[in-house]
Design goal:
Blueprint lengths: L5 H9 L4 E5 L7 E5 L1 E4 L3 E7 L3 H5 L5 E7 L6 E14 L2 H12 L1 H8 L7 E7 L2 E6 L4
Antiparallel strand pairs: 1-2, 1-5, 3-4, 4-7, 5-6, 6-7, 6-8
Helix pairs in contact: 3-4
Length: about 140
């Protein structure tokens, strides 16, 4: 049985994975974009993005999005989520630093966050309403 419990899905998402965000893009196929993300209390995901990017322009409160995170080596594990955007607001320096350090480590993340050029960044929170998780390590 390869199914994952809700706690296993939460724990997997809290690990370090690049997420693939899926957004409906009217008149085109869905936009799929890699994002750095983190898990917030209350079954929420959050990430930052440039408000002026294609991804940023498609996001709005209430819009449903999907995010999948996976391992890159066998035995494969993945968690796919779906839910509405519950908030979009200007990203704080602390949030940008947190995400950079999470993905790049203390030294490189701090240097990256302090390099500037993050005007127009927003923080997006998504409420996870649907979860799907598979862990082939359980076979």
């Amino acid at each position: 049985m390869t199914r994952m419990s809700r706690d296993e899905k939460r724990a997997f998402l809290a690990g370090l994975h690049v997420g693939i965000l899926g957004l409906e893009d009217p008149g085109s196929g869905p936009l799929l974009a890699p994002v750095w993300y983190d898990v917030a209390p209350g079954d929420q995901l959050w990430f930052t993005t440039d408000a002026g990017s294609r991804k940023g322009r498609l996001l709005e409160v209430g819009r449903r999005v999907s995010l999948v995170a996976q391992t890159e080596t066998s035995p494969y594990t993945y968690v796919s989520t779906e839910g509405p955007v519950v908030s979009i607001r200007g990203a704080s320096d602390e949030e940008l630093l947190h995400m950079a350090v999470r993905y790049l480590g203390e030294e490189r993340g701090t240097a990256y966050a302090n390099s500037g050029g993050f005007e127009g960044q927003v923080t997006v929170h998504v409420a996870i309403e649907r979860w799907l998780g598979v862990d082939y390590r359980k076979e």
